[in-house]
């Protein structure tokens, strides 16, 4: 698999015509496994996102009754639940999917450039409290985790969100699922709350064993070469931003 274009050119409909858009959740799962890295929404590289690959019927739309429908948004939880990829804010602070084949390399590199003790002082202490609290409870929705960490009061939500985003970029926190409130009829509504956990709990402590001594620099080189093949029109600066 060399490019995103080849991925779609190699997929055929039953009538033999090429299909270049994703129409279902299983097709999106297949795409994630094929390309390895896939931001959910706009990534700064044209065409490199799940949203950009969706067929029209899978895009966000407002219904006549004022409600909304967005299949891509609803697929996130089931895709994570299948256990073939990891989801979190891994791409310049934006959310997306990483296949299990590429997760060890991303984790290996990111943990070297986002070490837990890098911030030091109060910032490092807060990050440590968030991570320790999540490890203690196993998994928590973001608002419960913030409360359990004592980060309440004015401006605390944005502060907490910043720490959690950094911990996701460091591959220390991932999304296990999404939790939706229900109305009086039992129907789910809203955008959903991220159920956060650690990758060690989600994938097991041996998930990085495949690295076998590979250095963070080697992991970075492997990922960079892969993305350059996948996205031949992207600049080096764009590729490095995705991996940073």
List strands and helices in order, with pairings.
Elements (H helix, E strand, L loop, with lengths): L3 H6 L15 H11 L1 E3 L10 H4 L7 E2 L5 E2 L1 H11 L3 E7 L2 E6 L3 H11 L7 H17 L1 E3 H7 L7 H14 L4 E6 L13 E5 L1 H5 L12 H15 L5 H8 L1
Antiparallel strand pairs: 1-5, 2-3, 4-5, 6-8, 7-8
Structure explained in plain terms:
- There is one protein chain.
- This protein is of the alpha+beta class and 244 residues long.
- The protein has one domain (4-243).
- The protein has 11 helices and 8 strands.
- The chain has helices at residues 4-9, 25-35, 50-53, 71-81, 103-113, 121-137, 142-148, 156-169, 199-203, 216-230, 236-243; strands at residues 37-39, 61-62, 68-69, 85-91, 94-99, 139-141, 174-179, 193-197.
- The strands form 3 sheets. It has a 3-stranded antiparallel sheet. A 3-stranded antiparallel sheet has the order 6-8-7. A two-stranded antiparallel sheet has the order 2-3.
- Helix 2 (25-35) packs across helix 4 (71-81) and helix 5 (103-113) crosses helix 10.
- The relative contact order is 0.14.
Helix/strand-derived class? alpha+beta
- The level of helicity is 40-55%
Q: Between the first and last Cα atoms, what is the distance in angstroms?
A: 23 Å
In the residues, how many domains can be counted?
1
Strand order of the largest sheet: 1-5-4
Q: Major beta sheet, specifics?
A: 3 strands, antiparallel
